[in-house]
Write a structure and sequence with these properties.
Layout lengths: L2 H23 L4 H22 L2 H33 L8 H4 L1 E5 L4 E3 L8 E6 L1 E4 L4 E4 L3 E2 L15 E3 L3 E6 L1 H10 L1 H18 L26
Antiparallel strand pairs: 1-8, 2-7, 3-6, 3-8, 4-5, 4-7
Helix pairs in contact: 1-2, 2-3, 5-6
Length: 226
């Protein structure tokens, strides 16, 4: 292969890397964005190595492992959500990774009726009672999820721990980050809300008048307006 042909191949790799980089900006979700970013880094790495562009090589050596790690996070998140979805019970344990851990003693109030809305909660262990409805939520469940789907500004029920519990809480910003990185997470939350409403046999109590509430239960499930 003569020098001219080699030069054309190197130029082609450089153009391909540039096209892949532009493509990342056109992506709407994180999974294809990370895949294109990895492809771009590999092409730029080959391009920089062939032309001995050391600053470019150094940059891609940093970006490549970062994008690979982020891709692994997304694939791992999808796997955690897909397996339980097949079993018809969403697994929200991924909230452990993104949420703030909080140990709550038995008898402690997590939030009271009338408190401002701020968090969605995942129960790592223990049990939580929604007092107004007399519904007890167990480990592996979420509550307060309606917070991110309504305009309500205050809680419409009181949540209290009936035994020592390990809770993980995420605010709206973290919830949106999870949903952006994998839209199926938000879909799983919506399916949970819909299932709980259906198990109640009607729309949640307390929606007349000023809008709000409730914890529905069926098969151990429940939810609260937040």
């Amino acid at each position: 292969m003569d020098n001219t042909t080699v030069h054309y191949w190197i130029e082609a790799i450089g153009w391909l890397a540039s096209i892949l980089t532009v493509g990342t900006y056109a992506m709407n979700t994180m999974l294809p964005l990370r895949i294109l970013a990895i492809g771009s880094s590999l092409c730029f790495f080959a391009y920089g190595f062939a032309l001995q562009l050391w600053p470019l090589l150094a940059m891609e050596m940093l970006l490549l492992p970062i994008n690979c790690y982020r891709l692994w996070q997304i694939v791992s998140l999808r796997g955690k959500l897909a397996a339980p979805e097949r079993a018809r019970r969403p697994d929200f344990s991924v909230i452990r990774t993104y949420g703030k851990s909080r140990r709550v003693a038995a008898g402690s109030v997590i939030f009271r009726r009338g408190d401002p809305v701020d968090q969605l909660y995942y129960i790592g262990s223990g049990k939580v009672l929604i007092e107004e409805l007399g519904i007890e939520i167990e480990g592996g469940e979420i509550f307060g999820e309606i917070a991110f789907f309504t305009d309500a500004a205050t809680r419409t029920a009181t949540a209290r721990c009936t035994e020592d519990a390990q809770l993980y809480e995420i605010d709206e910003k973290r919830f949106m980050r999870l949903q952006f990185e994998d839209p199926s997470f938000g879909l799983s939350v919506m399916r949970t809300v819909t299932r709980r409403i259906a198990e109640n046999g009607s729309w949640p109590v307390g929606l007349s008048g000023g809008g709000a509430v409730a914890d529905g239960a069926g098969g151990g499930a429940s939810f609260t307006q937040s």
